[in-house]
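Structure ticket #2291
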Amino acid sequence: MKDTVALVTGASRGIGRATAMRLAASGADVIVNYNSHADADAPHAIDETIARLQSHGVRAIAIDADVSDRAAVARMVSDTQARFGRIDVLVNNAGIERAGALSAITDDDWDSTIGVNLKGQLLMIQAVAPGMRARRAGRIVNVSSELALAGRAGLATYCASKAGVIGLTKAVARELAADGVLVNCVAPGPTDTDLLPASERTAELVANIPLGRIGTPEEIAEVIWFLVSPANGWMTGQVVSPNGGVVI
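Resolution: structure written out below.
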């Protein structure tokens, strides 16, 4: 993927970071997005991430921006295009989780979760799509969750936002297909990231995974890499769910 420019949101850790690493390893220049206001530890992890990306001989920068803020998204995309010339690949990975019983869901829980997980993906697509359409080429992967397919008690806002990502993917894929832009969705199952706290890593959870273990960020990154790489030329509007067999 040499001479490819990829922007990965929510890439200071977890699946986003693993995806950025996989892209850099294949020769792509990578822009790592993070949000210091939502994650106080992110700035401390970014320097190491950028150094590791650059060790592959590619260009890599980090941009602090809230994907739920239209003006911040516009600035990030404009800055990237000014420095790199274009954006060939967008991986919409940034996400948050607000857990709570149905009766306890507040307006802020709903608005903030939908704002980052769903609205944020729309804003990013709106910002990069004009350039991709003009070049008649581009790859977009939106990260959802297997919980969008299965649901879970106590995670109504999260499940709703991630289900929305699937609908958004299918609609945008149809709209951009004629311009040569492929849009797909990855819906990971239980994965070793900060969104899966220790309290949920129970023997019962593992017992419900047919393959008998939780996944790794690197395994999810491989699926994303395929979808944005030249290996994929005829898949768009699809939901791929690497989940160990939790949803079949």
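Closing remark: The chain has a mean pLDDT of 96.
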